[in-house]
Amino acid sequence: MSVQGDKIEKTNTDLRKFLPLVLTRFGTSIFNPELIYQSLLKETKISKNDAHKIMEHVIRFLISANLKIITAPLIREVVNVHLLKNGFERERLQYTRIGLPYFDLNEIFTNTENLQNCEDVVSKILNWVIEEYYAVDKLIEER
Fold first, then answer.
1. How far is CA 64 from CA 58, 67, 69, 107, in A?
2. What's the rounded Cα separation, in Å, for the pair 4 and 10?
3. Separation CA 97–CA 76 (nearest Å)
4. What confidence score (pLDDT) does residue 101 get?
5. Which of 19, 21, 82, 105 could bond 57 through an S-S bridge, CB–CB 3.0 to 4.6 Å?
6. Under a CB-based contact definition with an 8 Å cutoff, are residues 29 and 78 in contact?
7. In this structure, are 75 and 141 located in the same domain?
8. Is residue 86 domain-shared with residue 103, that is, in the same domain?
9. Which domain, by its residues, includes 132?
10. Are residue 8 and residue 57 in the same domain, yes or no?
11. What span, in angstroms and rounded, lies between the C-alpha atoms of 19 and 68?
């Protein structure tokens, strides 16, 4: 590894002590800013330079928020805010998370009088997600 590569690795190691842990469905892991950069490049049409800038903004925000633990969906929300703040509206749409808020899922699961069985619950959730997908897809195509 080059001297500059060593310097970058040391900087990443130094930053990690200020960043929160990430809670995923697989357990808790160390926050890896590189994953933001990689996912922006994979999921949007943003340039490498702009993806790096967004990653840096998100890191600064998370450090200043002084959180102990965060979730992967929260990271995506923070990235989306910074995409919007920097004028990347189309990229924000491409990067959006499609799904249901916790409150709405809780309502579906706890108020099942009108839902006869598991298939009804799955159908309701799936229809919601499909409708949201097509709404976002239409917005992306308009940009």
1. 10, 8, 13, 34
2. 10
3. 7
4. 86
5. 82
6. no
7. no
8. no
9. 98-143
10. yes
11. 8
Provide the residue count of the chain: 143
27 DSSP 8-state letter: E
Return per-residue pLDDT of the chain as tens, 143 residues: 444 444 445 555 667 788 999 998 889 999 999 999 999 999 999 999 999 999 999 999 999 999 999 999 999 999 999 999 999 999 999 999 998 888 988 888 787 666 667 787 888 889 989 999 999 999 999 88
Cα distance from N-terminal residue to C-terminal residue, the chain: 42
CA 38/CA 61 separation, integer angstroms: 19
* 3-state SS, residue 28: strand
> What is the structure's pLDDT at 44?
97
> Residue 135: what pLDDT?
92
What does the block give as tokens for 54?
Answer: 């967004």
Is residue 36 a contact partner of residue 58, using CB atoms and an 8 Å limit? yes
CB atoms within 10 A of CB 71: 13
> In the structure encoding, which two tokens stand for residue 12, read together?
């990443």
CA distance 54 to 109: 36
Rounded distance between C-alpha atoms, residue 66 and residue 69, angstroms: 9
**What is the helix (H) or strand (E) element at residue 40, kind and residue range?**
helix 33-43
